[in-house]
Amino acid sequence: MHTEYHHAACGLLSTTLDGVIVEVNDTFLGWTGWGRDDLVGRRTFAELLSPGGRIYHETHFSPLLRVEGKVQEMALELVTTAHARIPVLVNALLDDSADESANDGGAGTPVVQLAVFGVAQRREYERELRRERDRAEQSEIRARALAQTLQQTLIPPSPPLVPGLEVAAVYRPAGTGEEVGGDLYDVFQVADDDWVVVLGDVCGKGVEAAVITALVRYTIRASSVLAADPASVLADLDRVLLAHGSDRFCTVVLLRLRRREGAWTVRMVAGGHPLPLLKSGGERPVAIGVPGALVGAFADIERDSTELALVPGDQLLLYTDGVTEGRRGRVMYDDERLVSAFADHTGDASSLTETVLADVLDFQGGLPRDDVALVALRVPGPP
Fold it and tell me: Can you list the domains of the chain with their CATH numbers?
């Protein structure tokens, strides 16, 4: 045989149709520890396999070779003279020109050519890939759990009780609800009969968005204690986000509510966020306020506050763009559908948020494309 045959990168054998070895290269002998005289004319290829491999050879390898004339990449195990096992892939080709001689009893006539490839390194590589995949999956699970934990600390399970005002809120993450988004809401007290209501949407999802969401929430809380005007609070938030350098902006609508002698006044500002809807006196809901630039995207932005008085029966609905931009195919839920759902509603603040959320989810087949957050305020009493 040629030198190329004996020193090939894979094991090469020639056998009779019954499997008796008639030629073998040095590569195969080096792998297994056998001598050429121990194999040629003395052993079959199947005898060099593990017990399980012999059964598989008899039930699959040999029948397939006889029927198809070839076998491709069949996984087997060789047993060395030291009783070690070597995982291999075997290709085999039946030489039809010699088949007739073999059937006539031509002993030693090579009719099957086998190429044997060691796959120990390949299997270790595959195992390492599986280990890396498992590590990545565990890392993703931990990151998701961290983000969900952060989100739970950022969105109160239920709004606080505000004397003389109904307050309700709902939040639904996008998709199946497993991935945490950047929507946030907050309702907190600054002084007696002095409350702040916040609804916002941080760009992005996951842990990074949750971190910025925390920064937004606590910056607003701290600034609201010092600044009475919501526009000043958003100016502080602009500076904090720009200084953070994360390249993440957000949208925010911020309301400062004060009750004096039983009547509520609202001062509000919007930064890149959908304007709240006001339903008053049985009239069709309308958007209130002045649109403003995104928060944390530009320096030295001036914002205008809007002030209004609320009378008994008045309702405000704050929402994120996951509501109006919800899609069913190419059709969006849109502003008009939201206004109609709000206009048709006659219950309290809590039932309003639940009704609108159910309508948005139903429109999208139960799987929203984006996070959905709603906050409703209602002054008790007849409209």
Answer: 3-118 (3.30.450.20), 155-378 (3.60.40.10)
